[in-house]
Amino acid sequence: MLRRNTYFLLALGAFTVVSIYLYTSIDSGNAVIQAQENDLKQLQQKIVNLQAVAKGNRATIIKLREELAELEKKPIKSDEEKLHKAPTKSDKELIAEPVIGNKVAHVNKVLTRTSPSYFSSTCDFRSNHSFVRSDLQMLDLYDLWQFENEDGGVWKQGWPITYDDQKVASEPKLQVIVLPHSHCDPGWIHTFEAYYEMQTRKILDGMAKHLGEKEGMKFIYAEMSFFELWWRDQNEETRNKVKSYIENGQFEVVTGGWVMTDEANSHYHSIIVELIEGHEWILNHLGPVARPKAHWSIDPFGLSPSIPHLLAAANITNAALQRIHYVVKRELARKKQLEFHWRQMFDAAGHSDIRAHVFPFYSYDVPHTCGPEPRICCQFDFRRLPAGGKSCDWNVPPQKINKDNVAERAHMIYDQYRKKSQLYKTNVLLVPLGDDFRYDVDFEWNEQYTNYKKLFEYMNQNSAWNVQVTLDEALVKSGERLPTLSGDFFTYADRDDHYWSGYFSSRPFYKQMDRVLQHWLRSAEIVFTLSSIEEEGAVDQKVFNRLILARRALSLFQHHDGVTGTAKDEVVVDYGNKMLEALKACEEVLSESLTILLGLDSAAPMKMDEIRQFQDLLPQRRVFSIDQNVVLFNALTRRRREVKCIHVDSIDAVVELAVKDQLAQQVNPVFETVDDQLVLKEGVYELCFQYSLGPLAAASYRIIKANQTLFARKAAIFASRTIATNEFDFKTLPNDFAVENDHIKATFDNAGSLMTVVQKDFGVEVGVNAHFVYYGARGLQKFRNGGTDYPSGAYLFLPDGKARRLATEDNSFIIVIEGPVVKQVVVAGNKDLKIQQTWSLQALQNFLDVDTEVDLRSKRNFELALRFNTTVKSGQDFFTDLNGLQMIRRKRQQKLPLQANYYPMPSSAFLEDADVRFSLFGSQALGVSSLESGQLEVLLDRRLSSDDGRGLFQGVLDNKRTVSHFRILVEPMKNGGYAQDERVGFHSHVGNFVSSSLLYPVVAMAATDAPSKMLQSTLVEDSLHCDFHLVTLRTLSDSTSYASPEPSTKSRRQAAMVVHRVIPDCRSKLKLADTECMAKPFKIVPSQLISLLKKTIDTSLTLLYEKEEIESFELNPQDVKTVKLVW
């Protein structure tokens, strides 16, 4: 039977190829022949994919049959069946009865559909679901397309569009939906608050006024950060008026996140934080009727499939998209594929598909939205009337519509609508009517409304045009079948070879600060919730408001001009100050909550082990003293046996551990930079100790003076020049040297460059050859199509050629610190760049840490990268992560320029061949590329003198001394390399742990008057399976009280438990050191984790929708799910 099914699928694929080929052969001409060849290549690739799918299906069917046989033995109704049953009466009260084809219908479908069976073996899942099943696959399309940059005429990046005006009357009526909107950046040229006072307040005031005055007028809005600020200032009359607009469909919230998030650098944890922040506020203050139904992403610079995956889990199932590579838009438009179902590369069934509508032209402003001719479209932006204060670049202003010109003007814009509609399969056309910070004056509200109303009436009455132009909601469905598309839309280019890969690494100081805040906030959320459950009312509500402050600071920075590093200098400083205050707030929450959980009787607040005094300086390490306590908190849901290092003021200091945890301790010298030289720091030492903490466990350890039975071993020092010390053994460093533990060995050359990494357990050696390279910025040039060039800037990466290697002769000082707990190699590098690189190898671990500090302030037009020339035979392929949520296969495209082959690396990348994988994990977002086989490079920082012509009007010259944290993992692989048809990758169990432990290191705090005994608190009663990651445990907010000048929000006795289930790559030969979590079940029972819970409620990701009370839940691999906990 299986063989017959396979043959049938292959025969069907071959028949499809032949049929389409014969059909297209009717035409003639070179262009048609070329199109036929491209179609044939695509179809041939689909047959290859089909063969792989058929092969995978055989294993899947066998597996499903086995599971079915097991279920037949136990015919018990499962929790899954209960979860996915038909809508109940209460469901129908939450979800409007669907009208066929509208947005509500799609939401209803999502809430009531049946998910595929849960996989008990994620290894089987990976082997069967690494092959993409979609009509369009972006990596394959990049191979087919030539990326020519030809002048298309009035549509400069396209072609002349025509239509038969005699046939339109017999076609389905064209529905044109005009969407008045205003895109408001929460920080860019001005700060968030300055924009609010200058423009956004006026925009929302205008909305509240004009929607009530103008019958049928509508408005959509996205950024809830601004809306919340405006809501504070409104009286009840205005608030009720706005709610009525929402109820009657005049005002719509789209996406509803705190910001319109960046999609390249933001981590999925922070994206979920900003989405929940916005959606929770909407439900608390606007009510269920305001739930967002559509996603609006018109300004982020490139698009990630992680966003629709999360939005689908939140039951937002339609998306309007703008910033996609201009050639990608053109090629999709040629085949009317600008509307598609965006499918996840790991989701063969399409259960998280989201319907996408791509706007085809250059920008989302009015000149580029009504049709292909911006000169004409600009004449229908009535804010640009002579009295409106704005003008058209084509020197042809709009005209007010009157009875004398309405026929001519209506035909002009109808012609644009009709031409634009030729690019879509469906008869529904979306036309945005707005721009950045628009509708901030009454003039615009009045002129757009009155003039478009006249145009609408004339067009709708002209039966020959067969068009209905309206402000009403678009129908979601039509009779046309839309294709499925998988992949991402990086790297974005808006014209010429202007690839927006620079912002992947712009302002890396704040990108690193963003990840620190993400970690501190996540830890604070978890301990606040657990302490609230443990002892109700013990945590002051003021502390909860500090937690809200931190949530909103992190959320605000996810804005696509925040974490991107593309704002004005003073705006970046404002973001930095907000994050600094948020870090202090998290410190207070952690102190209060851990004090309760550990039962400490202390009035003195605990302090984090790092001190951040200013937003633009790297943190300093706190120095502990004897008789103080160090409090540790493990924010992971699995046991950790790792090394923690703290600074102490005595060489005799040791940590008093429980007897069962008496592991080795080590004391190291501390070096500091004085006059560009590394010197010993007097009176300060580094104490490193091994600890073991259970899942979400906290412990308080006493620092005491060493004695005969408890002491720390002094490290030995090897250095390239003499170090005067009486406290540590010193020896001269040999030319080539190595550091190693029981599992790995790292070798270095005489310049301190990492040369090889050896996995000792398997005898596998990988050449690494780590070194620095740099790029310059190219000068101005002209393109053959008449385009004008710009230099590199905050957005664009336009190098002046290949990278040059940074000389290692300037590496002035190399220090090796050897001990039983940790080994370190410290290299003082190029003096101009003040490079300091520290390689660390912990006992028991199979990865290597590297911290790189750089300072580019002595340079101009200089971009520094860390490059690894490995011996991995990776060919043209490499893998990078998307928002820390999934890995995507990249392919170096020789037909594209260097800057096009740079991609975002929010957290990791790897190279792989048949035998070995080389992975690089980062705790900050940066740009990454593989420009040759076996090569991986990450861009560390950029300093640029010029503006790149994208509206910022400045270069990037506010550099700081910046640190980047990385981890290197070398993994021997089995069963050969990835298949050529695979488009998605996965980390191993070890790789997932390495990443999560880097992003979420153990929290360490100093307690001054804690008890002398060792205390430990097990905050939860069990751990989760290794494949599960607790994204957050977030206490929910009540409605905010705006009665006083300072808004106040109370916490509820409810929390959102958000869980992600990863897909592990089981081909790695490395095994977890602690396999305790591997034995845990895939079914999560919250009451078994936290016994004080009263109930658990099933919800959508951001809690916009609730279903029923449940006892347990499961997730498919790669799903992110939320349940509400009540206590």
From TrEMBL:
Glycoside hydrolase family 38 central domain boundaries = 498-579
What function does the entry list? Catalyzes the first committed step in the biosynthesis of complex N-glycans. It controls conversion of high mannose to complex N-glycans; the final hydrolytic step in the N-glycan maturation pathway.
Enumerate the InterPro entries for this protein.
Answer: Gal_mutarotase_sf_dom, Glyco_hydro/deAcase_b/a-brl, Glyco_hydro_38_C, Glyco_hydro_38_cen, Glyco_hydro_38_cen_sf, Glyco_hydro_38_N, Glyco_hydro_38_N_sf, Glyco_hydro_57/38_cen_sf
Q: Which residues form a coiled coil?
A: 26-74
Q: Which reaction does it catalyse?
A: N(4)-{beta-D-GlcNAc-(1->2)-alpha-D-Man-(1->3)-[alpha-D-Man-(1->3)-[alpha-D-Man-(1->6)]-alpha-D-Man-(1->6)]-beta-D-Man-(1->4)-beta-D-GlcNAc-(1->4)-beta-D-GlcNAc}-L-asparaginyl-[protein] + 2 H2O = 2 alpha-D-mannopyranose + an N(4)-{beta-D-GlcNAc-(1->2)-alpha-D-Man-(1->3)-[alpha-D-Man-(1->6)]-beta-D-Man-(1->4)-beta-D-GlcNAc-(1->4)-beta-D-GlcNAc}-L-asparaginyl-[protein]
Question: In its keyword annotation, does this UniProt entry include Cytoplasm?
Answer: no
In the Enzyme Commission scheme, what number(s) does this protein have? 3.2.1.-
Listed cofactors = Zn(2+)
Tell me the protein's name.
Alpha-mannosidase
GO biological process: any one?
mannose metabolic process
Q: Which Gene3D superfamilies match?
A: Glycoside hydrolase 38, N terminal domain, Glycoside hydrolase family 38, central domain, Golgi alpha-mannosidase II, Golgi alpha-mannosidase II, domain 4
Q: Which organism is it from?
A: Caenorhabditis auriculariae
Family per record: Belongs to the glycosyl hydrolase 38 family.
The membrane spanning regions, by residue number, are 7-24
Q: Name one GO molecular function term.
A: metal ion binding
Please share the entry's free-text remark on the cofactor: Binds 1 zinc ion per subunit.
Q: Does the keyword Transmembrane helix apply?
A: yes
Please tell me which top-level EC class this enzyme sits in: hydrolase
Q: Which SUPFAM superfamilies match?
A: Families 57/38 glycoside transferase middle domain, Galactose mutarotase-like, Glycoside hydrolase/deacetylase
**Record's GO cellular component, any one?**
Golgi membrane
Could you list this entry's UniProt keywords, alphabetically sorted.
Coiled coil, Disulfide bond, Glycosidase, Hydrolase, Membrane, Metal-binding, Transmembrane, Transmembrane helix, Zinc
